[in-house]
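note to self — DONT lose this again. spent like an hour looking for the file last time. sequence + predicted structure for the chain T wanted, 372 res
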Amino acid sequence: MKNILITGGAGFIGTKLSQKLTEKGYKVVILDNLSPQIHGDNFEYKPFQDVSFIKGDVRNSKDWENALQGIEIIVHLAAETGTGQSMYEVHKYVDTNCGGTARMLDYLVNQSHRVQKVIVASSRAIYGEGKYFCDKHGVTYPGSRKNNHLSSGKFEPICELCNKNLHVLPTDENSKIHPSSIYGITKLNQEQLVLNVCNSLNIPALAFRYQNVYGPGQSLKNPYTGILSIFSTQIRNGKGLNIFEDGMETRDFVYIDDVVEATLLGIESDTREQIALNVGSGVATTVIKVAQKLIVLYKSDTPINISGSYRLGDIRHNFAAIENAEKLLGFKPKHSFDAGITEFTKWVLDQEVYSDRYDESISEMKSRGLFK
């Protein structure tokens, strides 16, 4: 069995992945800085059996050197996440996501090592709005929505040639790449760095463009990512839910076990390529459905306010075409959204009720003109 390094391995995906890997007999090393934004203050990570833990930072070359000793497969998950926050903490996102990845690749290029494969967490955010169809002009990739449209309640992307509303299509890996946030730009940069350098070194590499990952174990403390966590914390704190735009914006929610399965398939595949693959459910779900489903499952009477507010840089729709992951890896998601959200809420109800920091995050964006 291979020795595997998981950066960000104390986080949501990394924890689930390391557990599965050790069950299968792999030796796992985790490199993680235990960010208070994700884990809370004074968090102590307790690794599984056959997991070695290194508290360190991907921005530190010495930490990479320490972590990579004897490693044969790298799963690089460590990153700053959150589209809204990335728009005003630009240096932090670029330094961690791009700079951290560059330090890893510097080591692979310039030092002796045993690495045989690299997997990097990319994101659906690299696509921006993704793929659409215009009745008159065919397939199109709209740019970021205009503030004057959003402020007047025109939330749907329009054709830039005829100004008509568009029909969303599943976004495949050959779709136009045009991220609309700093976070998306850094994730694109990460995957390009990894695929480019690994190609030059003849190291197989996979960039997994994860959709909106959710499920038991995700952070309930971080107010910048994950609407299921944000809504759950607000409901449990007795607060109303503020739905942006008109609530009909959609996302592709993919259950954590499916994401871990796809990543395991990538680890164990015999592909020699350097390639990017979508990992999602292939299904679009509206935000209003998410809110309504959570209220039912928590048996709550929490009011829903569809406010018409919006964040600059947010996309309207995006869901993944996942045929390539099936063809190359045999990946098929097994969990429907209804089944996954039920398991998620069962887990949440067994967790501590954390203070709601969401209003604080909104205030930070509003003060910088990013929230309207």
